[in-house]
């Protein structure tokens, strides 16, 4: 149970995972530092992590400036993400001590340095959102030896009423992390999933129930995996002019290399017998979305997902439930957003017939290849095994490329052997889209 003057807050956070070391804090010797090889007396560098830190580590630094390092504790996240994985909306909790503010009516008669004219006041969730974003956008990438705020902001009890953390909107978000919303965590008790009935019930070591917990109260998690697929046309991309060569393999890579799994292949006849001997060689181009959706249906429901379980998974049981899984594809026209596309489109509208479709002219002007497709795999459920979503995505891609039949996915699932399934998809294409907590909205 939380002690007096402490309150639990729930936060929603959005971040780009390409520049972070995952969500979980790695400690002062695990991020934003130089890691030396053990036994080398700090002479042999194992990894240079200066400028790289976890999402939680950056949030901790912002909290140090906002509330003070001694005035928050117990940061827990609902869904831990790996390095390179993005979050459209992840959730976490923090216990924050109430602020001690001066009472204006007593300030005139009691000396300012006395603590007798202090009163406690809970942090407003709105101020926490604006305050954290204010500091997240201004934190330096490199953590100095001793940041000055570590000592000066430990005690916020001396803040005057005018300094009551009334942060306005932050106009320059130059950070890859943004706090979306916050709220007071429900004042309820939830069952402790780690409770052992064979041991004596103990409030500290073996409690039967716990305070509201952001991880255990999550009722639905939704992930999306993005793939930018392209292929060279027949003739391997050669043009009529022998001195020219064009391929779709490099288009948009500078803008999307850290947000999609980039797959490029030639149109060819493929036959792969590792998983099935019933495959017929076919001429392929884009991924077969219909086959991927048929394969995904075998994974919906409650199953033993040992074949899709990542090494090092600490979950006690490999049995989980997938509520929904589907794949979709669309012709990709650029991640530069509607600004450039709309501007060019309006220009073309004035130059052509008002009723004419400008899409062909737009693709020609921006030189967008016809062979680019954005494939999205969406999967949702209550919880997932370690690396399960990335392993499932890689398996579905093999089906889409014609290297597996959709029915082979069921066979792999039933074998309960990780070695029988394809490898793991890279992290940069994975997005944690949303985490729901039942009726609790924040």
Protein described:
With 442 residues, the chain is α+β, with helices and mostly antiparallel strands. It folds into 2 domains: 6-185, Alpha-Beta Plaits (2-Layer Sandwich); 223-332 and 368-436, Pseudouridine synthase I, catalytic domain, C-terminal subdomain (Alpha-Beta Plaits), CATH 3.30.70. Helices cover 21% and strands 26% of the residues. It has 10 helices and 18 strands. Strand 11, helix 5 and strand 12 (261-266) form a beta-alpha-beta unit. The longest helix is centred in the C-terminal third of the chain and has 15 residues, at 337-351. It is globular. The two termini are 22 Å apart. Residues 106-114, 144-165, 168-173 and 271-275 have low confidence and may be disordered. Belongs to the tRNA pseudouridine synthase TruA family. It is an enzyme of class 5 (isomerase). GO terms for molecular function: tRNA pseudouridine(38-40) synthase activity. Its EC number is 5.4.99.12.
Order of H and E elements = EEEHEEEHEHHEEEEHEEEHEEHHEHHE
Task: Report how far the terminal alpha carbons are from each other.
Answer: 22 Å
Q: Which consecutive residue ranges, at least 5 long each, have pLDDT under 50?
A: 106-114, 144-165, 168-173, 271-275
Helix content: 10-25%
Helix count from the secondary structure assignment = 10
CATH superfamily of the largest domain: Pseudouridine synthase I, catalytic domain, N-terminal subdomain
Largest sheet: 10 strands, mixed
Q: Can you identify the CATH class of the largest domain?
A: Alpha Beta
- The CATH topology of the largest domain comes to Alpha-Beta Plaits
What is the CATH architecture descriptor of the largest domain?
Answer: 2-Layer Sandwich
Number of DSSP strand runs: 18
Mean pLDDT figure: 80
Rg from alpha-carbon coordinates: 27 Å
**Content-based structural category:** alpha+beta
Task: Give the tally of structural domains.
Answer: 2
What is the molecular shape? globular
State which percent range the strand residues make up.
Answer: 25-35%
């Amino acid at each position: 149970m939380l002690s007096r003057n402490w309150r639990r807050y729930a936060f929603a956070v959005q971040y780009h995972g390409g520049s972070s070391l995952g969500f979980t804090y790695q400690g002062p010797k695990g991020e934003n530092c130089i890691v030396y090889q053990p036994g080398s007396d700090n002479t042999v560098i194992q990894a240079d992590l200066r400028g790289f830190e976890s999402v939680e580590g950056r949030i901790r630094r912002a909290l140090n400036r906002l509330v003070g390092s001694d005035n928050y504790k117990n940061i827990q996240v609902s869904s831990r993400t790996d390095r390179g994985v993005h979050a459209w909306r992840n959730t976490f909790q923090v216990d924050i001590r109430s602020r001690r503010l001066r009472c204006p009516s007593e300030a005139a008669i009691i000396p300012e340095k006395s603590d007798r004219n202090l009163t406690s006041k809970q942090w407003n969730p709105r101020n926490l959102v604006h305050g954290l974003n204010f500091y997240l956008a201004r934190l330096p990438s490199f953590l100095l030896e001793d940041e000055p705020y570590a000592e000066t902001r430990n005690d916020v009890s001396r803040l005057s009423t005018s300094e009551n953390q009334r942060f306005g909107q932050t106009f320059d978000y130059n950070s890859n992390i943004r706090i979306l919303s916050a709220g007071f965590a429900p004042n309820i008790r939830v069952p402790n999933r780690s409770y052992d009935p064979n041991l004596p019930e103990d409030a500290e070591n073996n409690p039967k129930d716990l305070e509201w917990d952001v991880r255990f109260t999550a009722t639905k998690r939704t992930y999306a995996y993005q793939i930018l697929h392209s292929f060279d046309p027949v003739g391997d991309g050669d043009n009529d002019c022998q001195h020219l060569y064009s391929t779709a393999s490099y288009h948009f890579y500078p803008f999307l290399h850290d947000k999609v799994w980039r797959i490029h292949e030639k149109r060819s006849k493929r036959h792969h017998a590792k998983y099935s001997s019933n495959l017929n060689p076919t001429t392929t181009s884009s991924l077969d979305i219909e086959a991927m959706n048929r394969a995904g249906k075998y994974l919906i429901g409650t199953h033993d997902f040992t074949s899709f379980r990542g090494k090092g998974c600490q979950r006690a049981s490999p049995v989980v439930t997938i509520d929904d899984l589907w794949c979709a594809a669309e012709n990709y026209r650029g991640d530069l957003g509607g600004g450039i596309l709309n501007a060019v489109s309006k220009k073309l509208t004035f130059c052509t017939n008002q009723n004419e479709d400008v899409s062909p002219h737009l693709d020609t002007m921006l030189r967008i290849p016809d062979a680019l497709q954005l494939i999205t795999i969406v999967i949702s459920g209550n919880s997932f095994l370690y690396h399960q979503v990335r392993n499932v995505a890689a398996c579905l891609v093999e089906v889409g490329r014609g290297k597996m039949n959709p029915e082979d996915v069921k066979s792999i699932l039933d074998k309960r052997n990780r070695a029988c399934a394809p490898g793991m998809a890279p992290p940069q294409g994975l997005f944690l889209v949303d985490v729901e907590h039942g009726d609790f909205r924040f």
